[in-house]
Write a structure and sequence with these properties.
Rossmann fold; alpha/beta; binds norvaline; 5-stranded parallel β-sheet; 40% helix; 13 helices; 2 domains; binds phosphoric acid mono(formamide)ester
């Protein structure tokens, strides 16, 4: 005869009062022991929740690996599971997650929602990409540039294509380093004037926005590009493919930059659109160094924002 070793918990009445009392006591014990940390694991005892409204490879995996290598726990929540804003209000989701996690990593369409969540919760919120910013990518990019060129001050960086979240984040880097940033893009795709104005008082480097490829690329140490159709911009796909065509990063355009200029792309790339395979796979390309750096810089971010909190 089979013995029944398994029990399910489908309703509260599945447990006796005595069992419930015992479980409540154990829960308190777990709550109290949660903050005991080993010194070498900077995220030991910490949990990170990740909510992504958009797909991801690099950001997701680098965060998951980083948290685990630092001794923490990570919970990745698929958009379809959480359905923020549909199944429940975004803020209700965030205020629930802060009771479980020590940090919230958000990839959202709206940037404003990240600001609202950050206001509403007591735990750090890390932006894993929004429509207007990609700061985790930006830090990895700065590390890649530093490694490739030996420093950041004085670097001439040309960005070809859409003045999007990645471009704007690199422009923000000009507020901290003396980077000579030049965007080559159709005027309609320059970042908005409110954003540009907000940078001005903080500028350490310089910034030129131009429709001319030649002007942007002259003397460039770094040539950076990103997709023409960012996540969420799919309805404008045809228009964007037409309008950005002349800004493609190919061998011909690359020749307009400094000899030995380095090529950067945050990935994913659409080979044959914003960048050709010849360029992406050339010795000038440091795109996979950028990708690798996502892991290292994510660890630094996690330690800085999460580890040293009570
Ligand atoms: N660069 C970057 O953020 O890649 P994923 O969209 O794959 O995370
Ligand atoms: N600009 C791109 C970056 C992807 C990492 C996007 O927002 O889709």
């Amino acid at each position: 005869m089979l013995t029944r070793t398994k029990r399910d918990y489908l309703t509260l009445r599945g447990l006796s009062r005595q069992e419930l009392d015992m479980l409540l006591d154990r829960s308190l014990r777990f709550k109290e022991s949660r903050r005991r940390v080993r010194r070498d694991d900077v995220l030991a005892g910490k949990a990170v929740a990740m909510v992504f409204e958009k797909p991801s490879l690099r950001t997701r995996v680098s965060f998951e690996v980083a948290v685990q290598e630092l001794g923490g726990i990570v919970s990745f929540l698929e958009e379809g599971q959480v359905q923020p804003g549909k199944r429940e209000a975004f803020l209700d989701m965030a205020r629930t997650l802060e009771r479980y996690a020590d940090g919230l990593v958000l990839r959202t369409f709206s940037h404003a929602i990240q600001e609202r969540v950050a206001q509403a919760v007591q735990i750090p919120v890390i932006n894993a990409l929004s429509e207007s910013s990609h700061p985790c990518q930006g830090l990895a990019d700065l590390l890649a540039i530093k490694e490739a060129l030996g420093g950041l001050d004085g670097v001439k960086l040309a960005f070809l294509g859409d003045g999007n979240n990645v471009a704007k984040t690199l422009m923000e880097a000009c507020c901290r380093y003396k980077i000579d940033f030049r965007l080559a893009s159709p005027k309609a795709f320059f970042p908005d004037s409110e954003f540009l104005e907000s940078l001005k008082p903080e500028m350490a480097g310089t910034m030129v926005l131009t429709e001319s490829l030649e002007e942007a690329l002259e003397g460039a140490d770094i040539v950076y590009t990103d997709v023409w159709v960012s996540m969420g911009k799919e309805p404008e796909k045809e228009l964007r493919r037409r309008i950005f065509l002349k800004y493609q990063l190919n061998l011909k355009t690359l020749r307009l930059a400094k000899p030995n200029a380095k090529v950067m792309h945050c990935l994913p790339a659409v080979r044959g659109e914003e960048i050709t395979s010849e360029v992406l796979d050339s010795p000038c390309s440091i795109v996979f160094d950028q990708a690798e750096n996502r892991l290292h810089t994510t660890k630094a971010l996690l330690e800085f924002f999460l580890a040293n909190r009570p």
